[in-house]
Amino acid sequence: MDYSEFNGSISDSELAPLLSFSSESYLRQLKHGDFPRWRKHLESIPTIAASNCDFGDVVSMGSVSETDDKTREGIRGLLLEMTPWRKGPFDVFGIQIDPEWRSNLKWNRLQNNISSLRGKKVLDVGCGNGYYGFRMLEQDPELVVGIDPHLAYVAQFWALKRFAADLPLHVLPCALEQISEPLQCFELFFPRGVIYHRRSPIDHLLRCKHCLVREVNWF
Ligand SMILES: C[S@@+](CC[C@H](N)C(=O)[O-])C[C@H]1O[C@@H](n2cnc3c(N)ncnc32)[C@H](O)[C@@H]1O
User: Fold this and answer.
1) Distance of CA 68 to CAs 48, 73, 94, 157, 166, Å?
2) Residue among 103, 194, 196, 208 to mutate when testing ligand 1 (max atoms within 8 A of CB)
3) Domain for residue 206, yes or no?
4) What are the pLDDT tens digits along the chain (219 aa)?
5) Looking at CB atoms within 10 Å, which of 52, 72, 146, 183 has the fewest?
6) Which residues sit with their C-beta closer than 6 Å to ligand 1?
7) What's the pTM value of the predicted model, to 2 decimals?
8) Strand pairing partners for 206?
9) Euclidean distance between CA atoms 44 and 28, whole angstroms
10) First-last CA distance in the chain
11) Could you tell me if 207 and 179 are in contact, meaning their C-beta atoms sit under 8 angstroms apart?
12) Residue 170: domain span
């Protein structure tokens, strides 16, 4: 995954502590057994910039006409190797990724009950493969940063990002408690599905709070 643009954009900002999780040396030392294989695998996925993205129920990148059959079959095989896809659905150049869970149903229940994300910086704690982060882009936030320590999900995000490199959405392979300095930068955070896994939910929430500036909205 090429974080160089992200790293350049945050190096002089309150987000600079996140550089610890997007540097090549950090990525190289990640120890999940399959991770080196995934990284190699990702390099074989072509970097084709999708002309259009849609962040509706099915997060879509590009259309069938932008790739030939052979390229599409190649991409399909590479994405299939990253199974299981728990969050979704996605559509990549007409290749449908049918996930285990219909994450769109959850997002639809939520989206009318949150304040506008327009122009905001958003932290998605436990973001999985970034499905909800993509959905957030529908509302035109300034930046969405997702964090998740589960490398298989992060690798799925990296695969998708190869087709839409310029989006203001980034996923870092780390857990919330690894962020040791208060970022005081995000205007909104989503800690869904994580709090009840933590031994100390209150400490988890306090860590989230340290990432926030101004208003506090929890979802
Ligand atoms: C139950 S899933 C919820 C995913 C998504 N947020 C949702 O609402 O559907 C929990 C996710 O949080 C991640 N996670 C677990 N512990 C975490 C931590 N300490 N910091 C950040 N993410 C964590 C897991 O890897 C997993 O992807």
Assistant:
1) 12, 9, 11, 23, 23
2) 194
3) yes
4) 889 999 999 999 999 999 999 999 999 888 778 888 888 888 888 889 999 999 999 999 999 999 999 999 999 998 998 999 999 999 999 999 999 999 999 999 999 899 899 999 999 999 999 999 999 999 999 999 999 999 999 999 999 999 999 999 999 999 999 999 889 899 999 988 999 889 999 999 999 999 998 655 556
5) 52
6) 125-126, 128, 147-150, 153, 175-177, 192-194, 197
7) 0.94
8) none
9) 18
10) 29
11) yes
12) 4-48+115-210
Say if 168 falls within a structural domain: yes
Report the candidate in 69, 90, 214 with the shortest Cα–Cα distance to residue 153: 90
Peptide bond into 84 cis (omega under 30): yes
Question: Sign of torsion, CA 122 141 66 90?
Answer: positive
Question: Which single residue is written with the structure tokens 């400490």?
Answer: 203
